[in-house]
Amino acid sequence: MAGFTRRVLLGGAAVVALTMGQLFSGAAMAQDKPVLRFSAVFSDQDIRAQMVQQLGRAVADKASLELHYGGTLFTQGTELVALQRGNLEMGNIAPQDIANQIPAWSLLTSAYLFRDPDHLMAFFASDAGAEMKKLAEDQLGIHILGPTFFGTRHVGLKSDKKISTPADMAGVRLRMPPGEAWQLLGEALGANPTAMAYAEVYTGLQTGAIDGQDNPLPNVQNMKFYEVMSQIALTSHLVAFDLLTISTSAWEAMSAEQQAAFQAAADEAMAWSAAEHLKREVELAEFFKAEGLDIYAPDVDAFRQAAQAKYLSSPISADWPEGMLDRINAM
Fold this sequence. Notes:
Blueprint: H1 2-23, E1 35-39, H2 47-58, E2 64-68, H3 79-84, E3 90-93, H4 95-101, H5 117-124, H6 127-140, E4 142-157, E5 173-176, H7 180-188, E6 192-195, H8 201-207, E7 212-215, H9 217-222, E8 231-247, H10 248-252, H11 256-290, E9 294-296, H12 300-313, H13 324-329
Parallel strand pairs: 1-2, 1-3, 5-6, 5-7, 8-9
Antiparallel strand pairs: 3-8, 4-7, 4-8
Helix pairs in contact: 1-11, 2-11, 7-12
């Protein structure tokens, strides 16, 4: 993971230093600054909020990013449709939302697909990743700037029942975001998935409407879920990422040079965010222990085998591009 962080940060910084100075100076964009409305479900305390703020500063002389957090502009799962309808210019889009419209993308939402952030980034930088991006862009009218890694998802529970294998998850009402791909992920973990909006999870745990949730550690801290949980089982079931996305109409309104500069600024911001998430994951494990939570690793191999078998036996796998899973595993 550290290798990914150093490579991307150094490479991204070098590209941005060159392109931003050359392309976003002078008269690269003669017209008035466009306003790009950005919507995300994460809070203004999230590292990714700092990521888009960094991007906004980098392009501030030629574009204005209007930032909306916490699902206040568009609720979770509706941002993609807003982009498609021209009601939104930028969003942090879950791959599961793309999978709702393009079943082939369900592969990228499956449990234990990517080994770590290096593997995730290597995929999106590869020909295979370019093919999946083009599939989404051609069919949905969006342009994907890149993946926004935000940690590895683990299971957090209100009860103190020890979780060792998927069998121990039987009957657990595990909050998952709405959508078929998310529900399948909850089932693959052995739980009873319960659809619930992100902003409602704290109250859901507090009142007992749900027994647990799955999120990366930084999200658990940002949203204070740890206050109403007793444990975190480090299932590591999903290298979590969303997609920093801009509408095709907003993207095509830029010249090729402007696109290159915008992309370079986005690359640097995404790399910074990924590095910060990696650091926070290490720090937060100790923080949660100090807060009295039981933090432990279950039988991850048992979870991996059960989850992968669940996906391969599901009808959803019939939609996966032929040979794509093998290509990803070989990276």
